[in-house]
Amino acid sequence: MRITDTSDLWWKTAVIYCLDVETFMDWNDDGTGDFEGLAHRMDYLHELGITCLWLMPFYPTPDLDDGYDVSDFYGIDGRLGNHGDFVEMIRMAKDRGIRVIVDLVVNHTSDQHPWFLEARSSRDNPYRDYYVWRDKPARGKADIVFPDQESSVWELDKKTNQFYLHHFYKFQPDLNVTNPKVRDEVAKIMGFWLQLGVSGFRVDAVPFLIDETGVLKPEDALADPLDFLKSIRAFLGRRSGDSVMLGEANLSRPEQVKYFGGKDGDGLTMQFDFITMQNLYLSLAREDPRPLEKALKSRPIVAVESQWANFVRNHDELTLDKLTDEEREEVFAAFGPEKHMQVYGRGIIRRLPTMLQGDPRRIRMVYSLLFSLPGTPVLFYGEEIGMGERLEAGDRKSVRTPMQWTNGVNGGFSNAPESTLPSPVVEDGYSPEHVNASEQRHDPESLLHFMRVLIERYRASAEMGWGQYTAVKQGARSVLVHTLVGAEGRMVALHNFSGTPAAVTFTLEDVDRDDQLVDLLVDGRVIELDDSGTATIAMDGYGYRWLRVIRPTGKRLG
Ligand code: NOJ
Known about the structure:
By secondary structure, this protein is an alpha/beta fold. Helix content is 28%, strand content 17%.
């Protein structure tokens, strides 16, 4: 590997930060966040050290699913600004070395999208085939994504007396990607935003988009769903060679391999690793790293260009669908024991700090772990300051509260009356009075400062994004010791999942005499290895360490 490869394949060492413009910063005080507000916060994001912004949908929308119901793929929601503001924001980001990727939501449109209004106006409308219509579909409970809201994935359109497909809400009719015109539209949409300067897309609902859910009979679905995925990836490559497709695809391991495009890596560039995320919570609940270890071990080897995206929380529920019923119950009992903390029978609607009862040691341990997992870390806005949630908002809305900037009015998000905000700010122990960016910026002991250090060290340790992961055998059951070995060096990470201190003795293979371990995170201390490459380290309860292997003749900075 050449050092410049880390720049060419920038996503392999990126730090991705997801935000919704609507809830991030309101610059004109009309109650809704806007692009101008985001542009004004670019220095904050730069200071934090992130390298890639992922913008949740900002398109015109009836806003019944937080913008994931798009009524114009080329537009900007007028409450957030206009194309000029969008371009200014991109300019600000690029100037600070931050790339921007945007949500590509083309599994469905809003039912208010002009295509759907046309399509439902008559059976012979030219747009009819943009959607999926059936006379008598099987109307089972299977494949419903929001089981508390919908009873079928088919909805009758009374006027034309046919059912249309909607995997998500009934106001989100699925596009018919077997129609070549629709596939052309998808490419055109991508081309448009690329031309405005984005570096790729977070692709929404990939298995639904390529019709792999089994709802359609094989003869009605795409002949080869992966071909479609690969064709849009190829298009992306032609228009913008270093742009990425980060797929939202909560899949089994063999399916993930397919979606990456196997050893050719010509499918999705990146995929969120839902399996690792869910097993991380099981490990936290059990204070035992083994479920996480097992999940990481089960990761298939993927092409060099492909990359895993790691996360602990996102804008949806914390889904636990890949765990067994018993395992899910364990995680519910530990982190979301009350019914109003759960949703859809599969997930928790809290943020990490409240689940961990605000224990700063444990919260830091989890983020240290997140950044040390092989792959690219993805943060959801507010995680860097330890924001909590508003459970009373209900379901996924609970974590979509305004960013908390100061301890002032509406947490410094907006001076507009609270009733006009997308959501009130968090109350109780996690209110802006207790949790806000402004105070944490000046407090070297704050979570925000800790996150900055993590990000800085992660970015200077390409072996985390690129390297080979191996779990190191040792005797302390509550501690995960793993190494990441890359072309430029080696790291050892230690994480104690328990609140009880532990002494950890481990042996590294292939070390030379006089190699040393330098603590990158806690205190810069140098730890000697004995002749057999063995070290003993005392770990605090919920302790974490990142150790860099330094050779006396090496040129790497400790
Ligand atoms: C996945 C998104 O993450 C979620 O928020 C949305 O509701 C669905 N896709 C439908 O677009």
